[in-house]
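Workshop exercise sheet. Pairs work together: one partner reads the sequence aloud, the other fills in the structure field after running the prediction. Swap roles for the next sheet.
Pair: D.N. / O.F.
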Amino acid sequence: MNTGNGSEVIKKVSLGEQIALQLRKEILTLVYSPDSEFPSEKALSQRFGTSQLTVRGALRMLAQEGLIEISHGKRNIVKDFRKNVGIDLFPELLVACPEDVVTSQGFSVFQRHVFWLYDQLLINAANKATPANKRELRKKVRAFVDAKGTEDIWNKLLDFVREILNIGNNIVLMMYFNSYAKIRQRLFELGMINETIYPVPNYKTTLYKLVDAVCANDVKTVREIGMQLRPIAQQDSDLWYKDK
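Structure field:
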């Protein structure tokens, strides 16, 4: 497995998104206090030297995230993000203000949650799998380790994890993983994921052992292999965050 030519992901961020990134940072770092008045479209279009239509799109993004309340014909209001922001905003925080809002300690909380999620979905599958599941899981592993390029690697890993989730058939874990997948996809779109730590020695063999353990309902071995894979997952997610 490799990441292709190693070229960086090109950030495709529109002017409206750039404006939203800057305003989001100012809200989250309390340049604008909760419940205070937020600048109007006209004022922001003059500040950023762009049309009110572009600014309107940026404000709509912030409103959808629960950061501001838009009142047509009245003043816009800054909402208290502590009561409104969800984990889905995480990628925007990493891009806009990691040094101010998402510290390395705070990022480690997200990492630990991801590790917990993978552990739970593997254990859940190990409690329900049968030997009949082995063929399809091994097929997914082969596709994953043969993938080339960061996006292809992620998509093939996603296919493998989806198969694990289908075996476990736990709707709550599916919901958790879907949120994580959306976060990672957004990070990719924003250019935060530029490479992947691959190839890894004996990775294919380790994943085959994991599949065997899952299909044999060997939860103890699944836990042990999960711990072996954790440093790889940590290196991979560390690429998303650079402490300034």
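Discussion prompt: The chain is about 60% helix and 5% strand. What would you look at next?
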